[in-house]
């Protein structure tokens, strides 16, 4: 299943070429165009799912997460560590509506609770109804 308007689907089908960090019949990984860390690689399933809540079959999730270690090894991250991140929806700042895993590393990252979350840091009064 593909979305003809999705940039990541176009990458998955080869319509938009990328230098693959890792690829098999189920997933493809490539470096982010706007990296936040020295290593910032995106890993996507080749089938289209808008986000992790889009009824993604467990076998697809298994293949996606099974490839994380392979990407981390290919990028030289296994010795010092890395972070994986999945944004889902507007509040999480998901910019491309195709499930993707960010694999970040190559330098020290603060723990999420050590970061300045701005006005959202204490949001007990901002819960949705």
Task: Please provide a brief summary of the model.
The protein has 129 residues and is an alpha+beta fold. 18% of the residues lie in helices and 19% in strands.
Average pLDDT value? Answer: 89
CATH topology: the name is: HIT family, subunit A
| Order of H and E elements | HEEEHEE
Note the total helix count.
Answer: 2
* Widest sheet, order of strands: 1-2-3-5-4
Beginning-to-end CA distance, first to last residue:
34 Å
Largest sheet: 5 strands, antiparallel
Residue share in helices? Answer: 10-25%
- The CATH architecture classification is 2-Layer Sandwich
Task: List unreliable stretches of 5+ residues.
Answer: 123-129
Shape: globular
The level-1 CATH class: Alpha Beta
Q: What is the CA-atom radius of gyration, in angstroms?
A: 16 Å
Describe it for me?
The protein is 18% helix and 19% strand. By secondary structure, it is of the alpha+beta class. It is globular, with a radius of gyration of 16 Å.
List descriptors:
single chain; alpha+beta; HIT family, subunit A; 5 strands; 18% helix
Topology (elements, then pairings):
Blueprint: H1 7-12, E1 20-23, E2 27-31, E3 39-45, H2 58-74, E4 82-85, E5 101-105
Antiparallel strand pairs: 1-2, 2-3, 3-5, 4-5
